[in-house]
Amino acid sequence: MRKNAPLLALLAAALLGSPATAQTAPPAPLTLAQITQIAASASPTLTAARQSVLQAQARVGQAQAARRFQITFNSTASLSGASVYQPPPTYETFGTLQNTLTVPLPLGKRSRIAITQAQEQQGAVSAQLDSARLALAGQAATAYYDVLRKQALLAVAQQTLTEDQRALGDVQKRTQAGDAAQLDVLQAQVPVASAQAALDGALNDLAVSDEILNSLLGRSLDNPLLLADIPPNALALPYTLAQAEQFALSRSPDLRAAEATIRADQAAIAAARLYREPFYSLQAIDIRSKDVTSFRSEDTLQAAVTLPLSDGGLGKAQVAEAQAALAGASAQREVVRRTVLAGISAAYLTAQSRRRQIASARIARDIAQVTYDKTTLGYRNGLFPLLQVLTARAALTQARIAYTQAVYDAAAASTTLSTGFAGAVPTPLPASTPPVVAPPTGANGTSPAGGASTPGTSPAGNSTTGTGPGGASGGGRGAP
C-alpha cells in the first residue's frame, strides 16, 4: 500500500487538478455595452428619473380614482336645549345623533379629462427618462473612448521613448567609434528627454480618464480598468443627412416629451373651461333624537346638485393660465425640434469627416514610417545628418498620434450620432451607393506608402487583437 501511495497521489492530482497549478481565468475586457449598463445601474440621475415616472403613474391612479365611487361617512352627535311652543313642558333638553353617507357621482367630463392630462404627463416624464438614459449612454461612451484613446497614446509615448533611447545608444556607439561628432550625442539626448516628459504626461492623462470613468460606474476612483478595444471604421455612413434628420426627429425622446406636454396642456385647458360644471352626489341620512316633541328617528335619502354660480374670476384665470402654458409648450417644442436637427446634423457631418480622417491618417503614418526607416538607413551609411533623422522621427511620432486620435474620434462621433437616433439605425441607402470612403492616392494612382494597410493593421505588424491602433486595452499592443 505504501509503494502505491505516490502513484495514487499522481492519479488524484491528474483527476482533480493540482491547487498549485490551478490558475484563475483573467477577467474579460469590458465592452461599451457593458460599461453603459453598469453606469445605468449606478447612476443617481436615472434613479431620480425613474422615481419621477413612478410619481407620474401614481398621479394617473389618483385621476382614475376620481371616476370611481367614493363613499364617506359622517357621524354628528349634539345636545340641544329648546323652549316648547305648546307646553308642557315649557323647556326641554335632548340629544341627537345624525349619521350621513355621501356618495359623489362621477358624471362630469372634468374627471375624464383629468385622466387624459395625467396620462400625457406620464408620457412626458417617461420620455424624459429615455432622454436621461441616452445622455448617460453618451457620457459613458465619451469616457470609454477617452480611456482607450489615452491608453493608445500612452503606448505611442512608450514606443517613442524606446526608439529614442535606442537611437541615442546607436549615436553613442558611432561617436565612440569615431564615426559621429559629440554634437550628435547632444542632439540625440533632446528627443529622449522630450519623450520621457511626454510619457509622464500620458500616464497622468490616463489616470485622470480612468478616474472619470470609474466615477461614472460608481466604483472606486483607483479601480483598475480592462476595456475591449475597437476596430478602426473607415466605412461611409449608409444613409444621407436628410434620412438622419428625419429619423432623429421620429426617435427623439426630447421631442416626444415636448409633444406629450403639449397634449397635457391642451387637456388642462379643456378641464379649466369646465369650471361651471355641476357636481352631483347622493346622501343617506339617519337621525336619532330624544326630542319628545318630534320624531324619535328619521331616515332620509336625497340627491344633491351643486352649481358654482360665482367664483370671483378664478375659473377664467385658470383658463388663461392653461392657455399660456400651452403657448409656452408649443414654443418649447419648436426649440427642441431645432436643437435635435442641429445636433444630428453636426453629429452626422462630424462622424462622416472623422471616418475619412482615419484613412488619411493611416496613409500619413505609413509614409512617415517609411521615411524614418530610409532616413535612418541613410544616416548609418553616412548619407544624411542626424538632424534629418530626428526630424523624421518627430514626424513619425506626430503621425502615430494623429492616427490614434482619428480612430477614437471617429468612434466617439459615431456613438454621438447613434445617441441622436436613440440607439436605433436608420434605413440604409440602396446597395448601389458606394459604401467605402476612397483614401487619397499618390501621383501614380496608388497609395504613397505602397498601398493603404487594411483596417486594424500597421506596417510594423498586427496588434494583439488585430484591430485598433494598439490591440486590446490593458494588454500588449502592437507597434502603431
Please supply descriptive tags for the structure shown above.
4 strands, 9 helices, single chain, Outer membrane efflux proteins (OEP), about 475 residues, alpha+beta, four-stranded antiparallel β-sheet
Bulk shape: elongated
**Element-by-element helix/strand order:** HHHEEHHHHEEHH
Strand order, sheet with most strands:
1-2-3-4
Task: Using the CA coordinates, give the radius of gyration.
Answer: 39 Å
Q: CATH homologous superfamily - what is it?
A: Outer membrane efflux proteins (OEP)
Number of domains: 1
Q: Provide the β-strand percentage band.
A: 5-15%
* End-to-end separation: 62 Å
CATH topology: Outer membrane efflux proteins (OEP)
Helix proportion range: 55-70%
Overview of this protein structure:
This protein has one domain: Outer membrane efflux proteins (OEP) (Up-down Bundle), CATH 1.20.1600.10. It is about 60% helix and about 10% strand. Strands 1-2-3-4 form a 4-stranded antiparallel beta sheet, with no helix packed on it. Helix 6 packs across helix 8. By secondary structure, the chain is of the alpha+beta class.
